[in-house]
């Protein structure tokens, strides 16, 4: 599991960040937004240092812009926590439907 996942969970749940909640939810469900963005940058032929730094700055920028895009803090909190709880529930349902692994 990505070492940043716990940080994203904390920022999404307690910090009320929709951006980091979405990153955590996508990672938990197996379709990492950050991983896809990194693959895109690699495919474009960017230097490895940019492949590491650009996503950090991009997602930080998105998190800082959230108050302008969703000005109501209660809605941001609801959306962030909703994403986290829904992704956990979906992951549990998927695990239950798959059954025990042999």
What attributes characterize this protein structure?
mainly alpha; single chain; 102 residues
Note the beta-strand portion. under 5%
Radius of gyration: 15 Å
Describe the sheet with the most strands.
none
**Mean pLDDT, as a whole number?**
85
For the secondary structure, the number of strands is: 0
Structural class designation: mainly alpha
Number of domains: 1
Taken in chain order, the helices and strands follow as HHHHH
Query: How helical, in percent, are the residues?
Result: over 70%
Distance between the termini: 21 Å
Give the overall silhouette: flat
- Count of runs of 4 or more consecutive helical residues: 5
Task: List unreliable stretches of 5+ residues.
Answer: none
Explained architecture:
This protein has 5 helices and no strands. It has one domain (5-98). The protein is mainly α and 102 residues long.
Layout of strands and helices, then pairs:
Elements: H1 5-13, H2 18-28, H3 33-43, H4 48-69, H5 73-98
Helix pairs in contact: 1-2, 2-5, 3-4
What can be said about this structure in brief?
This protein has helices at 5-13, 18-28, 33-43, 48-69, 73-98. It is an all-alpha fold. It has one domain.
């Amino acid at each position: 599991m990505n070492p940043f996942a716990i940080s994203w969970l904390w920022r999404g749940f307690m910090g009320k960040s929709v951006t980091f909640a979405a990153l955590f939810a996508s990672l938990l469900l197996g379709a990492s937004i950050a991983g896809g963005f990194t693959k895109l940058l690699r495919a474009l032929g960017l230097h490895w240092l940019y492949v590491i730094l650009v996503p950090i700055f991009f997602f930080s920028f998105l998190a800082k812009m959230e108050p302008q895009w969703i000005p109501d803090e209660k809605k941001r909190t609801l959306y962030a926590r909703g994403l986290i709880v829904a992704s956990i529930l979906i992951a549990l349902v998927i695990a239950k439907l798959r059954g025990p692994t042999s």
